[in-house]
Amino acid sequence: MTSTHETLEELSKEYQDAIPADLREYRTFEWYLDKLCDEPKVARNAHQRVADMFDFYGTEYDEDAGVVEYELASEDPTNDGENTFYGRVVHEAIHEFVNKVKSGARGLGPQKRIKLLLGPVGSGKSDFDRQVRRYFENYTRRDEGRMYTFRWTNLCDVIPDQDPADDTVRSPMHQDPIVLLPQEQRDRVLEDINEELDAPYTIRNEQSLDPASEFYMDQLLAYYDDDLQAVLENHVEVMRLVADENMRRAIETFEPKDKKNQDETELTGDVNYSKIAIYGESDPRAFDYSGAFCNANRGIFSGEELLKLQREFLYDFLHATQEQTIKPKNNPRIDIDQVIVGRTNMPEYKDKKGDEKMEAFNDRTKRIDFPYVLQYEEEARIYRKMLRNADLPDIIVEPHTLEMAGLFGVLTRVEEPDTENVTLVQKAKAYNGEIDEAEDIDVKKLRDEAAEKADIGEGMEGVSPRFIGDEIAEAIMDSMHRSRDFLSPLTTFNHLEENLATRWPTTSTRSSARARSTWTT
Predict the structure, then answer these.
(1) Measured in whole angstroms, how far is the alpha carbon of residue 163 from the centre of its chain?
(2) What is the pLDDT of residues 172-210, one digit of tens each?
(3) In the chain, N or C terminus with fewer CB closer than 10 Å?
């Protein structure tokens, strides 16, 4: 057994190895231009970087389904499969999400839209959103995902009223150093690096400096008689930018608050009251870039339960999407570059869907349906993962127990088949791939019928995996209390059926009848 000192040394070494070697190194702007010539992808925008991230961790093409499965979700390689996603419909949703990001990377339009994950409670949309943010952090720590920003230095040497505490100021919007060049010179640099770029997209950047940085640039250019090179050499340092949700850097999550306490400054930023006495209220240096859109720049903005926000509060998203700008109070517009992801449940979506006053917001939204799993064996893998990640008691889960629970859930989600001589259970088995040629069941026809019949889509209603997982846990504890060293399908089924009416009253009548088919099957 190693000593505590040796263990601490080992942990410290692992921590150091996990930090990018150049994280705390400061480079010149000239070094950055050379870096762009060697590695043009360093200057990618947010959609391009996120799109490349999905491919980086591996892909597998399912030719039968016509869907790309991204190992980021299907294998979870950095966490040994702890957070994997199952089911054809789920991977179809992820495939659609990535396609929209990749279309945005090419500048085809979706870069100006909210990617709205729509699904019932417990369908996994929040887990997927979190997975994307975690992998974006991991990707930007790797050489393949590198991005850079800059900081202003030695400002007090030139600007007389500059607060000594602000002698060195980091780019408040984490902007790419390329924005320090005027547009004409910037375009020439980008034209050169695009000739060397090996990617399906073109790198562009037409952003303006944020107001504070623009103020510093104007002051410094005036001091150096418009000598841009002198400004860049004496007052700009380039630094590595790593996305970090906890640091609110290039990743930001936003949650709705009480309607009476919602304030647009949570999105766009507010005055830094500690600086008003020094600079004055109208000075751009007195603005605090702490809004969610500011923090998410260059990365991912994640809006939880987005449609629970008041209608007026959602107006800030209109310019953030279509024009890719934000408008803080008493400040000019600020350019932003980020993948905006929203999540919402069915009731909020149905409520806003028919609201004519929401037409502009809906037009700026790309909906991605994130339904429940419709293959019961894939559903069983969800519960198996849950047990694998938990401290499972010394108990044996009998064969077919989890598959039975999975079929229980699927039967509450699929639409009744219109095709003659096809029962609900047969349809569930067909979806699971158990197609007997003698039965002559056309799965595609069943899917098409369900798509026309369902209110929004098949799998968007029914019993959630979260409910079934809770009941499996209760059944395990019940078996332990009865001194049983096994969990049987019957015990699990009884817990599911007994608690269905309490937890899911809106679907209990239909679900109970269907659930009994599970047990008889």
Answers:
(1) 38
(2) 999 999 999 999 999 999 999 999 999 999 999 999 999
(3) N
DSSP string, 215-250: HHHHHHHHHTTT-HHHHHHHHEEEEEE--BTTTTBS
Report how far residue 35's alpha carbon sits from residue 176's, in angstroms, rounded to the nearest whole number. Answer: 13
What the block records as the tokens of 52 is 């490349």
- Overall pTM > 0.85: yes
Stated as kind and residue range, the H or E segment containing 463 is: none
- According to DSSP, the residues that pair with 244 across neighbouring strands are 249
Please list, in sequence order, all residues whose beta carbon lies within 8 angstroms of the beta carbon of residue 206, skipping any fewer than 6 positions away: 183
- Closest C-alpha to 300, from 130, 471, 489, 442: 130
User: DSSP assignment, residue 51?
Assistant: H
pLDDT tens digit sequence for 355-370 = 777 888 888 899 999 9
Crossing angle of helices 376-388 and 465-481, rounded to 10°: 60
The residue count of the chain comes to 521
The residue written with tokens 């969610």 in the block is 292
Q: 390-395 long-range CB contacts below 8 Å, 24 or more apart?
A: 392/476, 393/476, 393/480, 394/485, 395/476, 395/479, 395/480, 395/484, 395/485, 395/486, 395/487
Distance, CA of 495 to CA of 92 (rounded, Å): 32
Strand-pair category, 114-118 with 365-369: parallel
CA dist., res. 55 & res. 199, Å (int): 12
User: What is the SS3 assignment for 277-294?
Assistant: HHHCCCCHHHEECCCHHH
Distance linking the first and last C-alpha atoms of the chain: 54
Among 290, 287, 212, smallest CA distance to 249 is for 290
> What tokens appear for 294 in the block?
């500011």
Q: What is the pLDDT of residues 227-263, one digit of tens each?
A: 999 999 999 999 999 999 999 999 999 987 766 666 7
User: Which segment of 30-39, 136-145, 323-332, 510-519 scores lowest on mean pLDDT?
Assistant: 510-519
DSSP tag of 485:
S
Q: What CA–CA distance (Å, rounded) separates 58 from 70?
A: 6
With contact defined as beta carbons under 8 Å apart, do 115 and 341 qualify?
A: yes
187 exposure class (CB count in 10 Å sphere: 0-12, 13-18, 19+): middle
Query: In 10 A of CB 352, how many CB atoms?
Result: 20
The DSSP annotation for 408-448 comes to HHHHTTSPPP-STT--HHHHHHHHTT---TTT---HHHHHH
Query: HEC profile for 318-364?
Result: HHHHHHCEECCCCCCCEECCCEEEEEECHHHHHHHHCCHHHHHHHHC
